[in-house]
Structure formats: structure tokens, C-alpha cells
Design a protein that fits this description.
The radius of gyration is 20 Å and the shape is elongated. The two termini are about 20 Å apart. The longest helix is centred in the C-terminal third of the chain and has 37 residues. The chain has one domain. With about 100 residues, it is mainly alpha-helical. Helix 1 packs antiparallel against helix 2. The chain has a two-stranded antiparallel sheet with strand order 1-2.
């Protein structure tokens, strides 16, 4: 068994934040394209806000992901100091 005793808070939060930005951009992009096509026809006054939202949503998602991942790592590290951490059983792959 391998035991995860501690997470590096900042490094883990950075990695998760970047993953959140990439994933949210992939998810937001189709909705933004559909929304921009609809907004030009029905809400022309909101067309300029579409590009800003397209950039801001993934960035905000990444920032929030960073903050909550950092909090989660600190909480895990605190709990793991009392309990010893999560145990993981691993084996070497034989291909």
C-alpha cells in the first residue's frame, strides 16, 4: 500500500485550476457560439458582452477552482495528519 500523507497545496491548486480553465472553455465555447447567433437576432444590444463572457467564464472558473482546491488540500492535510492519509494499493503493469 502507498499512503497519500500530504498534498502540495499551491502546486495541486495550480494544476486543477488550469484543468478547470481548459475544460470550462471547451464546455462554454459551443454555448457561446449558439448564444452569439441567437443574440444577434433577438438581443443585438448584448452582442458585445458575448466575447467578454467567453473569456471571463473560464477564467473565473479557474480562479474559483484554485481557491477551493487549495482549501480542500489544506483540509485534507489537516485530517491526514490525524488519520495517516488515504491508502492506495498499486501494482506494476505487465504489458
Amino acid at each position: 500500500m502507498i499512503r497519500v500523507k500530504k498534498f502540495g497545496v499551491i502546486q495541486t491548486a495550480k494544476v486543477v485550476a488550469i484543468i478547470y480553465v481548459i475544460v470550462s472553455f471547451v464546455i462554454v465555447m459551443p454555448f457561446a457560439l449558439i448564444g452569439s447567433m441567437l443574440s444577434e437576432e433577438f438581443f443585438p444590444e448584448f452582442v458585445d458582452m458575448g466575447a467578454a463572457a467567453l473569456l471571463m467564464i473560464p477564467i473565473m472558473y479557474g480562479i474559483i477552482g484554485f481557491i477551493f482546491t487549495a482549501i480542500g488540500c489544506v483540509v485534507y492535510n489537516l485530517i491526514a495528519s490525524f488519520t495517516g492519509g488515504i491508502e492506495i494499493e498499486m501494482e506494476t503493469a505487465t504489458d
